[in-house]
Amino acid sequence: MEQINCTQVTEFILVGLTDRPELKMPFFLIFLSIYLFTVVGNLGLILVIRTDTRLKTPMYFFLSHLAFVDFCYSSVITPKMLGNFLYKVNVISFNACAAQLGCFLAFMTAECLLLASMAYDRYVAICNPLLYMVVMSPGICLQLVAAPYGYSFLVALFHTILTFRLSYCHSNIINHFYCDDMPLLRLTCSDTQSKQLWIFVCAGIMFISSLLIVFISYVRIISTILRMRSAEGRRKAFSTCGSHMLAVIIFYGTLIFMYLQPSSNHSLDTDKMASVFYTVIIPMLNPLIYSLRNKEVKDALKKFVINKNQALVIMKLKK
To answer: Which of 43, 96, 115, 230 has the maximum number of C-beta atoms within 10 A of its C-beta?
Structure first.
């Protein structure tokens, strides 16, 4: 293969969401508010789940890990994006770009697989309620969380190494608001066929397998619910999986829109808007979905706030 002589870049410039100065400050305030809400919502959800004894069940164990992943991959992307609204040129070093890509891929993959684990949990809870605590034992729950983390870390490491072993000499300007695979591949002067094939294989296996688990789980869940004679029983069953079903539809719907649209309609601007949705909006929505639609979480949150207020009152009285 012909060798190309070029100077390897040491840093990249992120174009960001917009280059219009009049939009940068409004966008900064909007996304800062969303990020703060995301941090408070996800960390608050984790805190409530870990401190309330009524939420010591497999479903909330998985939910706490989903909230952790949402917090992490939003934090990998959003702070750097906010900086892009404040500076004329948003520079990111070569190593920092690699770290951002690796962390983003790891947490994004973990989210996808955790949603599949949660779908299986809901399947067991509704279709085999008498065996639920036996099947979903602490050991099994730990495995269903450890496997997504382990697999996502290995896949992210593999793809990050492949991407940053390529030579970048055409340009160092990334037409995106974070370091992502496809915008980076447009800058390389190396052959990308092998890398693109691995993206297709790994993403296909992860997406199809996790979506298949979710689909089969919910087909069986819906079939079981429809066979229930009691209307109250059907209502309770739907309420236990409604939040997760909504989160799955939003997450997978966004990915399907982004990656399965016709190539003629595919553009970097479309990619940016879809990326904003699943890197910024979805991590903010998940705490809302799981708290506003879940009576147990709302009750636990009220109890947590009341206890904290009482503790503050007692401290003030002692002073």
So the answer is: 115
Sequence-separated (6 or more) residues with CB below 8 Å from residue 115:
66, 210, 214, 244, 247, 248, 251, 252
User: Rounded to whole angstroms, how far apart are CA atoms 75 and 37?
Assistant: 12
Helix (H) / strand (E) element for 133: namely helix 132-135
Tokens of 82: 């906010």
Give me 289's structure tokens.
């979905």
Q: Which residues of the chain fall below pLDDT 70?
A: 1-7, 258-268, 292-293, 298, 301, 304-319
What is the torsional sign of CA 12, 18, 24, 26?
negative
Q: Are strands 173-174 and 11-14 parallel, antiparallel or unpaired?
A: parallel
For residues 245 and 264, give the distance between their C-alpha atoms in angstroms, rounded to a whole number: 31
Q: Which residue type is seen at 100?
A: Q
Q: Residue 281, exposed/middle/buried by CB under 10 A (0-12, 13-18, 19+)?
A: middle
Residue from 211, 192, 179, 219 nearest 76 by CA: 179
Give the DSSP H/E element, type plus range, for residue 91.
strand 90-93
User: pLDDT by residue (tens digit) across 9-43?
Assistant: 788 999 888 888 888 899 999 999 999 999 999 99
> What is the Cα–Cα distance from 282 to 38, expressed in whole angstroms?
9
- CA 84, CA 218: separation in Å to the nearest integer? 41
Note whether 285 and 250 are within 8 A (CB).
yes
Structure tokens at 235: 């209502």
Burial 236-259 (b: 16+ CB within 10 A, else e): ebeebbebbbebbebbbebbeebe
pTM of the model: 0.88
